Amino acid sequence: MSHISIQDVHKVFxxxxxxxxxxxxxxxxxxxGQFVCLLGPSGCGKSTLLNAVAGFSLPSTGVITVExxxxxxxxxxxxxxxQEYALFPWMTVEQNVAFGLQIKGxxxxxIEAKVAELLAxxxxxxxxxxxxxxxxxxxxxxxxxARVLALDSPIMLMDEPFGAxxxxxxxxxxxxxxxxxxxxxxxxxxxxxxxxxxxxxADRTVVMTYRPGTVKCDxxxxxxxxxxxxxxxxxxxxxxxxxxxxEEQSRHNQAEFRGAAVD
Amino acid sequence: MKRYRHAASGVLVPLAAIxxxxxxxxxxxxxxxxxxxxMAVLVKWWAYLRPLEVFDPAQGSYLTWCFSxxxxxxxxxxxxxxxxxxxxxxxxxxxxxxxxxYSKVAYALFNPLVQVLRPIPxxxxxxxxxxxFGLGNPPAVFLISIGAFFPVLxxxxxxxxxxxxxxxxxxxxxGASQLTQFxxxxxxxxxxxxxxxxxxxxxxxxxxxIVSEMIAVNNGLGYRILEAREYLWSDKIIAGxxxxxLLGLGIDTLMSRLSSHLLKWHRGLEQG
Lengths: 263, 272
Hints:
The complex is a heterodimer of chains A (263) and B (272). Chain A is an alpha/beta fold and 263 residues long. Chain A has helices at residues 46-54, 93-104, 108-121, 137-149, 167-184, 195-201, 232-257; strands at 4-15, 18-30, 35-39, 61-66, 69-70, 78-81, 155-159, 187-192, 204-208, 215-220. In chain A, a hairpin with a 6-residue loop joins strand 9 and strand 10 (215-220). Chain A starts with a strand and ends in a 6-residue tail after the last helix. Helices cover 76% and strands 0% of the residues of chain B. The longest helix of chain B is centred in the last third of the chain and has 38 residues, at 178-215.
């Protein structure tokens, strides 16, 4: 049985008096432990789909199930990492990481042990007493990842988590995420608009079309890890994906010129 | 070096102003009853500050004697009223503000009344306060609490209403209950606003205390400067005014220290 099952999901919402078909007939089966990237131009509904899996905004029709149970609300079994980090600025690094465990009602000693373990895993130990404002973007995103890992959720949802980072920090965190994923074998659903990021990280890349958001193609990425972004195989895949994405991008551009794009 | 020069330039204008003032007096350009010299004000201030009686161990400790001066007594009286009024006003405004900010229903119910009452200056409540509470501390505390109430209320409402929705999404994602969302996310996120409101409220309370003492109380700094006018003691009036200013500055500095200590996480955040 697949871990996450997305069955005939449609999402329609109203924006500026217009009906927008954000998602149309999405069907995806994601097995346990798979690293899936959702790739597409802005406005293709990839974040909408992620939010539907997270339970923040449920599908208009169709169902999403996790381990067979239909999703009706957000929950700690699907930890989410946001592009804007969304750390609580009034909590220190360790308080941010501990928060989810406190909510669960885990006892104090166990929280301390778990937090220490996660901070060590993400090289944050020296920063544990700092407030988010005193951290760089990369550091903040490490904390956000640690906060989600603390939940021990089988699924991690990531919404362009490295989009705001510079190239070097981004690669660094990508490697770190792969290391963590290899160790903990979580199912990851990762939204990005970067082809290279998708090919570097994912077992499988799902390309989405510009509005209405549908699955344009579902491509397995079989390259061995660690992946070499300069290898011919990597670049051949990259070229194929670029072609597919350009088609959607131009549809997005045309819509924008018509003044129909609602983002 | 640069820091000292900065500090030095800060006292330049006040010194010049005092010098000019002294010059006006020394040259006899203004009547001393209208505007006494800075020196005369300082002398009066000292007389106002120091104990009235000679020290007598039988009457009490040395420390008690030190603080037995009229000025200390007045300042303590004013401060007591400010703190009482502020505690009552802010104490009522905080829970109401949190409720109004959090619940749309509560907001719809209370906001019209709040908007009608808010523009009424606390001073306008003076006749009613005397009618209701007579003279002395009760009407003063009542007026001050009204002065402190609205700034704290309005800022608390705004603080709660403007909590960034992403924090609430994270809270739901982490499985937080409504209560946890409120106590661990909404409340701390709103504290910078609440502190701003408290600081404004404290400032208003300080204005109102002086006015209320001029009308309803027979001690305190506001009472004392009005009393001094009746004897044409302009030096005492000015000494009293400076005391009021210093006390106000002291309270505001204390509030701002307290808030920057409690909001360490927030310092510099508003700049990005």
